[in-house]
Amino acid sequence: MLRSALFTLSATLAVTVSGLNILLTNDDSWASANVRATYEALKSDGHKVLLVGPAVQQSGKGGTSVFPTVNITAPGGEFGSIPVGAPYFGHDALDQNIWYFNGTPAATALFALDVIVPTRFRTDEKIDLVVSGPNEGSNLGPFLYTLSGTIGAAYASVERSIPAIALSAGNGTHRSFTTNTGSKTDPANIAGRLTANFVAALARGVNTKKSRLLPLGVGIGINFPTFGPGNPCVAPPFTLTRLTGGATIDKVVINPATGFPTFTNLVTDGINVKLNGLHNLPGETVVNAGCKTSVSVFSIDYDAPTAVAAPVQAHLLPIFGKSQLPHGF
């Protein structure tokens, strides 16, 4: 029985679990500071990690799956990380567990699972967890759930029956891993360590040879607040949340200076209706506004709850015919 809507985990949670086989990906490219710091943090905790990220930044692609038809074109890989004309996928010259693929995040995750994983893991091994992110910027609420490439790579993996988590960070600066200062207060290193701490908590007590880390068809979306140098929020506690609750969607407005459309955030009842899950949980958008990390469990089953769907189905009964209705309807 859930006694509280909130739970916290120490930001310095000790690792007491066996190493996992992890596929790490993102949408900000294989050369982003966040993903490389997370790669190092997960490895330092004893996990076997394969990083496969897009060749260039692919933010806002959602779950679209676009595959390359040519090799790397100008201007090359993100931050100059891949030369023009290089193959559409390849690995770091110094680390054969760091790869790029010139596709959208969902396509990158699928390519990694089907093409690269078999070359880096034994045939008797499996991926225990897909970790997507941490994204450079927050992905809060149902609207960004469908828009985010970071989350898209995660739910594509869940649809492939593999447990997955998507992580996003309030620090939205797009930067190369070569800019990482190595300091514990570098936002990329904070995000990487918090990610590794969450993975440790998720895996604690689970024998992945016998059990899954998450139920089939279920994933987790995590949003870190803004933290880093000059910001006292460096150890935001993990807080159980739901996607809805204070969530926003775009409202189109015309920029008076340019005459072109842009958007502002709009809170609506439609995006914040509570149909599934625990209704007493706080919304991740509200929680993330403070120094807390939201943790929302999502499902890839988009069917409406029975009680909500039944009146709609009953109203449409004349067009279905009795033979097409479920037994007992």
Detailed description of the structure:
The protein is α/β, with parallel strands linked by helices. It has a single domain, classed as Stationary-phase Survival Protein Sure Homolog, Chain: A (3-Layer(aba) Sandwich), CATH 3.40.1210.10. It has helices at 33-44, 105-120, 141-147, 149-159, 187-203, 269-272, 284-288, 306-315, 317-320; strands at residues 21-25, 48-54, 89-92, 95-101, 129-136, 164-169, 218-224, 238-241, 249-254, 261-266, 293-299. The strands form 2 sheets. It has a 9-stranded mixed sheet, sandwiched between helices. Helix 1 crosses helix 5 and helix 2 (105-120) crosses helix 4. Mean pLDDT is 92; it is low at 1-16. Residues 22-226 form the Survival protein SurE-like phosphatase/nucleotidase domain.
- The domain tally reads 1
> In the CATH hierarchy, what is the architecture at level 2?
3-Layer(aba) Sandwich
- Count all strands and give the number: 11
Rg, rounded, reads: 21 Å
Identify the CATH homologous superfamily: Survival protein SurE-like phosphatase/nucleotidase
The major sheet is characterized as: 9 strands, mixed
Which class best fits the helix and strand makeup?
alpha/beta
Strand order of the largest sheet: 3-4-2-1-5-6-7-11-8
Pfam family, one: SurE
Signal peptide: 1-19
Protein name: Survival protein SurE-like phosphatase/nucleotidase domain-containing protein
InterPro entries: SurE (IPR030048), SurE-like_Pase/nucleotidase (IPR002828), SurE-like_sf (IPR036523)
